[in-house]
Amino acid sequence: MTRANETRQTSVTSDPNDSAATLAITDRTKLRRLPKRGSYDAAVVHAILDEALVCHIGFAGGERAPFVIPTTHVRIDDCLYVHGSAASHMLRSLAEGVEICVTVTLIDGLVFARSAFHHSVNYRSVVVFGTAMLVEDAAAKRRALDALIDKLSPNRTAACRGPNEKELLATKVIAVPILEASAKIRTGPPIDDAEDMALPYWAGIVPVQLARGLPRTAADCDRGPPADLR
Amino acid sequence: MTRANETRQTSVTSDPNDSAATLAITDRTKLRRLPKRGSYDAAVVHAILDEALVCHIGFAGGERAPFVIPTTHVRIDDCLYVHGSAASHMLRSLAEGVEICVTVTLIDGLVFARSAFHHSVNYRSVVVFGTAMLVEDAAAKRRALDALIDKLSPNRTAACRGPNEKELLATKVIAVPILEASAKIRTGPPIDDAEDMALPYWAGIVPVQLARGLPRTAADCDRGPPADLR
User: Fold this and answer.
1) Domains of chain B, each with CATH number or no CATH
2) How far is the alpha carbon of A221 from chain B, nearest alpha carbon, in Å?
3) Is residue B151 classed exposed, middle or buried when 0-12, 13-18 and 19+ CB atoms within 10 A define those classes?
4) Are A202 and B221 in contact, with CB atoms under 8 Å apart?
């Protein structure tokens, strides 16, 4: 793995006895608005990254707007991995070791208050800043690719054909250290102003979640879905 | 509404009889990878923006990585609106009329192929490039704020207290024209290579969707949820 930026100023509290490692707060991860919604707890950050199926990666677009591109991701320890075609614009950009911002957002609920102003959304989001690093070590690359597959369904790598040399050549894997990151979370009911409490309006939440349906076997496949997907 | 960039080089086909307006393709919206997944049909772009509850906004971070921040959005005609606290970093940045990239992603399914390489995700995403414009016209600002509320539930603005002067002052609304945009969509079953078809592995999809649950009334509210939320 290339190390484009060995001298990062951010670091994870590394006490091995401290299971709730705290990420260092930097100027750009410090939550100024509603800081009570923020968390720098690595376990909280990791759990949100693990639950999200896609992330949005921001990288510079020269003198114009940055690009924000969605892609699947997987976390292994304190590193986030994404992959893609070696020919893609994003992968070619990231492979150059640029600084990126990776954001994931989980929506948990719609929040209805008595006032329009206090309507909101319950969410859990994570923002990671870091330098994209091309994963060149073959074993590390394969481990990340397997983890991306297993994130869709546990142990799926054991239930499909692994990548061959040509496919590995056509695929790039990029790593981003999860060192400069923060989570932001809103949870719970609406918070109305005291003078609005008697207004004749309903207040509450409507939970939302990404739900998985029943597997649908491909028309050209004559076997049933594995037990862990049914 | 400020018009920071009247001389845009992109435009929507404006034949009023053409209900399927096509967005002009620009260098940065042209889909080079898997162009068959792309669409520049305004109706397709609008439908994806309308279904998504949150977008991810990318804006420059000076010499370092861009910021990618999630927020709710709403579309009215060919304009996308976001709002936030006048005090927030993002809103202050956007109000300066900077170029931004707004991306939304809907996940529709997990795609399991016989080969690891052809595993994928069914998705519908939209990327919009444009110049953020502070909405200064009071009526346009109020219309966007109402639409943001009504996106959570139709006609909710009629069932809550509207914003007062103080709340309007504390809130900024930003508009982005949906002129330079493209959609990218993957749909359907896995596509395996011919030589993998006989492998003893299941192939198919697992549909996923953002599902709304039953409303939960706030503990301090003594009325039941409105009919259209039950």
Assistant:
1) 35-190 (2.30.110.10)
2) 6
3) middle
4) yes
CA A179, distance to chain mean position in Å, is 14
This complex has an ipTM of: 0.90
Q: In 10 A of CB A24, how many CB atoms?
A: 15
Of A44, A93, A166, which Cα lies nearest the Cα of B33? A93
Tens of pLDDT along A72-115? 999 999 999 999 999 898 999 998 889 999 999 999 999 999 99
Backbone angles phi, psi at A103, to 5 degrees: -125, 135
Token pair for A39: 């968390």
Query: Which of B103, B116, B209 has its CB closest to that of A160?
Result: B116
Using a CB–CB cutoff of 8 Å, tell me whether B97 touches chain A: no
- The structure tokens listed for A186 are 């809103």
What is the value of pTM for the model shown?
0.90
Q: Indicate yes or no: CB of A213 within 8 angstroms of CB of B206.
A: yes
Q: Is B60 on the interface with A (CB under 8 A)?
A: yes
